[in-house]
Design goal:
It is a single chain. Helices cover about 80% and strands about 0% of the residues. The chain has 14 helices and no strands. The radius of gyration is 27 Å and the shape is flat. The longest helix is centred in the N-terminal third of the chain and has 32 residues.
């Protein structure tokens, strides 16, 4: 037991280091795209440790970043160890699973709350969605490593949901790759390699305006690619969850179809809402065509694993029709008049 507990603690610490590296790399890419490398950790260190403001960052930028990195890695290591011990405790006390979920949700919102608490100067420099994406990427990396190191614990806690998560991740990667290949083929044909992800990256990260011209850089393409595949994997996980639920309630297939339709119009609406000039530069038909190709590929993959859902949906619909017909054939309710009484005529 002592050896097992020591292994849990060590693996939790390693998972925390992995999560800290993921967040650090994500914000490094974020800062480089905006033209201010190391600005995020330096800003946080200056505000938390020294009470300084954003205009003081040019003094000792690297030292401030190093100071925050020590706090950053220490916090993630503590979080990884605590999460690992909670995961181990859930193996014997299933009631702690809800507490574990609260623990991970609290981790997601904690950093956002800290940034808001530090004031508008920090909140203006750090976008809320960037914080959430970074923390979700770190959480996914930490859980993946820890459960990979403890497969028996993963099977005990997750059971059949492991297969559901695997299916969702694979489907999301398939959709993301299809869209990436479609955009790359179009850009190669037009003689502007990586032009599309550069436009979308500049738009999302707010580093430049489309009408001002966009400078193609590796961090810009890499940053958008991370968001691109992150969104598709989350979408794939949502679809896989709905389809898994439809095995017991076939009508959940309709919710999956609705999600597919929402996804198709979401990206076009999101791009046009943020920057109309970006939509004109990209061409709405190119976005729609790419998403349709991705949905066809993902639907083909899901259908191969859920071949009987169509039959179940038809059977469930027929069952509801039969129950409705039986309800319509019920005899009328008996009269409540007392025996021997006569109806009253007005």
């Amino acid at each position: 037991m002592a050896h097992s507990r020591a292994r849990i603690i060590i693996d939790g610490a390693v998972a925390g280091i992995i999560g800290a590296i993921v967040v650090a790399v994500w914000f490094l890419i974020f800062d480089v795209i905006r033209g201010h490398a190391l600005e995020t950790p330096a800003l946080l260190a200056a505000t938390i440790l020294h009470g300084s403001h954003a205009h003081d960052l040019h003094h000792g930028l690297k030292l401030l970043a190093l100071e925050y990195s020590l706090i950053h890695f220490g916090a993630f290591i503590a979080f990884g160890i605590t999460g690992g011990l909670l995961l181990e405790a859930c193996e014997t006390e299933s009631s702690l699973v809800f507490s574990l979920a609260i623990f991970f949700v609290a981790f997601e919102v904690f950093f956002v709350a800290v940034v808001l608490f530090l004031g508008p100067n920090v909140a203006a420099e750090l976008t809320w969605w960037g914080i959430i994406v970074g923390n979700l990427l770190a959480t996914a990396a930490m859980l993946s490593y820890f459960l990979w190191r403890h497969p028996a614990l993963a099977r005990h806690l997750l059971g059949g949901w492991i297969a559901v998560a695997r299916e969702g991740v694979i489907a999301g990667l398939i959709g993301g790759i299809v869209v990436a290949i479609w955009f790359m083929g179009y850009d190669i044909a037009s003689g502007n390699l990586f032009h599309t992800p550069a436009i979308l990256g500049a738009m999302v990260f707010g580093s430049a305006n489309v009408t001002d011209g966009i400078q193609l850089t590796l961090p810009l393409v890499l940053g958008y690619s991370i968001l691109h595949f992150f969104a598709f994997v989350m979408f794939g996980l949502a679809l896989a969850t709905l389809l898994a639920s439809s095995e017991s309630e076939p009508f959940m297939v309709l919710a999956a179809l609705l999600l597919l339709a929402v996804f198709e119009v979401f990206f076009v609406g999101f791009v046009s809402l943020i920057d109309q000039s970006a939509l004109e530069a990209l061409g709405w038909w190119k976005i729609v065509a790419g998403n349709i190709l991705a949905l066809i590929a993902m639907a083909t993959y899901f259908i191969r694993g859920h071949r009987g859902l169509g039959v179940k949906l038809v059977e469930r619909w027929a069952m509801l029709d039969h129950e409705g017909a039986e309800m319509g054939d019920l005899p009328p309710a008996p009269s409540t008049r007392a025996p021997g009484s006569h109806p009253t005529h007005l």
